[in-house]
Design brief:
InterPro entries: ALAD, ALAD_AS, Aldolase_TIM. With 324 residues, the protein is α/β, with parallel strands linked by helices. It is built from eleven helices and twelve strands. Helix 3 runs parallel beside helix 4.
């Protein structure tokens, strides 16, 4: 018999499998999302996202204490305001819900790394990520409001700004605004590659951010395109982004890999609401082993090249990893 490779030699025991494992997932890889609402005494589960809750500021500690105890180093804050208007003024208000939340979190947990989602869709009455005039989303006019939002979040104490709006030139505008306001040290995690994906539905339920007309395909990317992702990311790198985000994650691991191969910045991915809810629904039906599926998926993100994973599974995954 001709000699052949015996690959199974390196799979013969758990010890050897652990010793040669190429990629590892850990709690410090995770960014945990937090939804903050106005009011008091509120902890309400998002109907389409089992285990994900809206918190008022007075109950936010219930979420944060668990995040910290599990060793998750970072949260990203999404605000759901009680009032909306055409220009999303609550996004950049000094006492907007996100600004209040950031100040509260940094006061209670100064070592927790707080990322601010910088967009307008949750705050506008039309649900789009920028200024609208006669049904058109205006790019350059929107940049001014997005920059105001980023500066106000930095003033509140955010450690990182994460703009997710996909307006052209948003990184350059926000970088200039932060620098002029004295926040040169604040990094930008750019949602450099954000697709017009069908996987966002449950988030819009959570953030009350569904567009009131049309869709977001004039500014978010066509899911069919890959080379375009490299052009988008290259623009953000040139404009001063410190990290790059790919959103969504599961259907776009090839894009994560392409960015990792092309650019020397850290790459993150957003394991979005639809991906989370599909797994939750299948697990509740008993069709899948949730723990095994989630940890396999998160490992896939790391294998593709993501250093950081923004995921609604953060707390559960950190707990499973701790349990071994």
């Amino acid at each position: 018999m001709k000699p052949f490779a015996r690959h199974r030699r390196l799979r013969s025991s758990e010890n050897i499998r652990r010793m040669i494992r190429e990629h590892h997932v850990a709690a410090e890889d995770f960014i945990s999302p937090v939804f903050v609402v106005e009011g008091e005494g509120i902890k309400e589960e998002v109907p389409s996202m089992p285990g994900v809750f809206h918190y008022s500021l007075d109950r936010l500690d219930e979420e944060l204490s668990e995040v910290v105890e599990l060793g998750i180093p970072s949260v990203i804050v999404f605000g759901v305001p009680s009032e909306k208007d055409a220009c999303g003024s609550q996004a950049y208000a000094e006492n907007g819900i996100v600004q209040q939340a950031i100040r509260s979190i940094k006061e209670r947990y100064p070592s927790l790394y707080v990322i601010a989602d910088t967009c307008l869709c949750q705050y506008t009455d039309h649900g789009h990520c920028g200024t609208v005039e006669e049904g058109e989303i205006l790019n350059d006019e929107s940049l001014r409001l997005l920059t105001q939002t980023a500066v106000s979040q930095a003033e509140a104490g955010a450690d990182m700004i994460a703009p997710s709006n996909m307006m052209d030139g948003f990184v350059a505008a926000i970088r200039e605004g932060l620098d002029e306001a004295g926040f040169e040290r604040i990094p930008i995690l750019s949602y450099a590659v954000k697709y017009a994906s069908a996987f966002y539905g449950p988030f819009r339920d959570a953030a009350h951010s569904s567009p009131q007309f049309g869709d977001r395909r004039t500014y978010q990317m066509d899911p069919a395109n890959a080379r375009e992702a490299l052009r988008e990311a290259a623009s953000d790198v040139a404009e001063g982004a410190d990290m790059l985000m790919v959103k969504p994650g599961m259907a776009y691991m090839d894009i994560i890999h392409r960015l990792k191969e092309r650019f020397d910045l850290p790459v993150a991915t957003y394991n979005v609401s639809g991906e989370y809810s599909m797994i939750k629904a299948a697990a509740q039906k008993g069709w899948i082993d949730e723990k095994a599926v989630v940890l396999e998926m998160l490992t896939g993100f790391k294998r593709a090249g993501a250093e950081l994973i923004l995921t609604y599974h953060a707390k559960e995954a950190a707990r499973w990893l701790r349990e071994g």
